[in-house]
Amino acid sequence: MKSKAIKKSSKIKFYADENMNIEYVNFLKKDLKINIKTTDELGNLGKDDKKQLFEADKRKRFLITCDKGFMDNKKYKLNTFRGIIVIDSNLVDINLGKIGWLFKRFIVPAETELIGKKILMYKNKCVIHGKDSKGIIRNKSINYDDFY
């Protein structure tokens, strides 16, 4: 049963906007073999945030960014896109190994559970924003130190 989950999860794809740290993108892409495309690769440099999210969604990719503006639930409503992952741009001292671990341990295996949600990644935790079955916005916090 585990092998099915891993096989299914390997299909998750990401779209990195121009606010994403290129060092993180290259590490995820080259070292961890995560399927990630950038705005530059797809000819979308300079497009506004809504167009970037549209491009990611159109390509069935989770948007990955450092732009916290995507956390605005009035502008970017939950369940209207594939998924958004925001990495706190203040993570200058987080190591690439921890980012890789976070993606492999939490993000990639949880693809179907994350559709329509937003994830904000901080140095020591991530917060998943989503709606429950009644449409109420709920936040779930995961402390990395409990697992890493």
Description:
By secondary structure, the chain is α/β, with parallel strands linked by helices. It contains five helices and seven strands, in the order αβαβαββααβββ. The protein has helices at residues 2-9, 22-31, 49-58, 96-107, 111-114, and strands at residues 13-16, 35-38, 62-65, 84-87, 118-121, 125-131, 137-143. Strands 2-1-3-4-5-6-7 form a seven-stranded mixed sheet, with helices on both faces. Strand 1 (13-16), helix 2 and strand 2 (35-38) form a beta-alpha-beta unit. It is globular, with a radius of gyration of 15 Å.
What is the N-to-C succession of helices and strands?
Answer: HEHEHEEHHEEE
Distance between the termini: 24 Å
The number of distinct β-strands equals: 7
How many helices does DSSP assign?
5
Strand percentage: 15-25%
- Rg is 15 Å
Number of domains: 1
- Overall geometric form: globular
User: Taking strands numbered 1, 2, ... along the chain, how are they ordered across the largest sheet?
Assistant: 2-1-3-4-5-6-7
Helix % is 25-40%
- Low-confidence sequence ranges: 1-9
Alpha-beta content class: alpha/beta
The biggest sheet amounts to:
7 strands, mixed
Summarize model confidence as the mean pLDDT: 84
Features:
148 residues, alpha/beta, seven-stranded mixed beta sheet, 5 helices, 7 strands, 30% helix, 23% strand, globular, disordered N terminus
